[in-house]
Amino acid sequence: MLAVLIILWTVGLVLLVFDPRKPSVRWMAGFLFCGGAGGLSAVIGDTLMPYGDIHGYTPSMQEWLDRARIVFSLLQYYGLPFTFIMFASHYNPTRLSANLRKALPYAVLAPVAFILLTLRPVHPIPYRAVVFWAIPVVAAGAYLVLSRRETLYLLRRNHRYTAAAIVPAVLYCSVMNYLLPAFGFTEMWRYNTWAIVLAFVIFVIAIFKYGFLDMQVLLTQRRLDISLRAMTSGTAVLNHAIKNDVGKMKLFTDKIAAYAADTNQPELLQDIRVIESAAGHIQEMIARVKGQTQELELRRSPLDLGDVLLELSRQVSVGLPPSVEAQWELDGPLPLTADRTQLVETVQNLVNNALEAMPQGGQLAVRAYATPKWVVVEVRDTGCGISRAELKRVLEPFYTTKAASNRNFGLGLSYCYHVMKLHKGNLHVESLYGKGTTVTIHFPK
Q1: How many CB atoms lie within 10 A of CB 63?
Q2: CB-based burial of residue 184 (10 Å sphere; 0-12 exposed, 13-18 middle, 19+ buried)?
Q3: What is the pTM of this model?
Q4: How confident is the model over 395-419, as pLDDT tens digits?
């Protein structure tokens, strides 16, 4: 049981360190600490108290150990179902109304209070009474966890691994802790170790590779946010330095050009024009970089996303290559409060990327629709697609798959990501190499 204690409390601490502000994470950590309390109760009863008998602990010390064993055991048996249903209600809040979520903790704890106040003794656990409370509560929590629905592929995969790590282990341990003891099979909790170890293995794999309770998504977003902040400040300094030096170059090239014209030196004048052109090119480049990395200030206003995209579709159709078939599906009206300019620029960036991915032609599909929580825009193409290795990096500033283009700085998608973060939304890229790419942006309603 010592291993169970270490595993559960370690995972609980890891979750709290990663994202302590999220209610579902806090309740899951509480659930794990309650489970660890059961392991601690077993360690006290199986190890510390027999050790005290052998080495002559005082009666008062043995009494305190026994009291601690009972308290931690009660915390496990009554705490696990309660913390699990509370976690589930925050993990999938759309299944419960606001009033039901407020009443839920009182409704779940009322039977516990009745059992503790009326049934004596409270320990050992009165399994035949507790089972009629614990099993329905755990089953309801499992239903809430499994019924969560995600529109983003990355979050769907994250949810699958979260559910795989939590639900089977919880159901198995509930059978061992409550159901079988109600029929006289006591001490079955000792077989929980293997289910907990398996859940821990799934957790370790998920947290580093696929995500658990949105943890990997959170880490990815933080890394991108740090990169964007560094990029913003870095390019601001770079822009200032280059602008000053280019200004000096222009001042002296004007003087030299005037001197070359006065002294009739056409070759020198031609050389000066080359230098001026190069300086102008540098200015243009740094202005383009600064335009996509500067801190954005949103100017929100109510708008209809369908109308915005309809206008954009007319602009795109003017320059659309004959080899590209475009389809715009707008499920309107789609009311939204957003920065119209940044919204248009974001979708325009995604459409341009899709068109650039189809130099030989293909199909462009733009779809806008609403879900209960989001207003969604999907931009899909049938172009060359993105490899798995590149897909992991496409949101990084200055990373580009279009290395052949000297006018592409790899800032388009990071700019789009930045805009969506400022709108409290998200951006997700799915792609199959050789088959096409779908970029989805979600605006909160």
Answers
A1: 11
A2: exposed
A3: 0.59
A4: 665 555 554 444 444 456 777 888 8
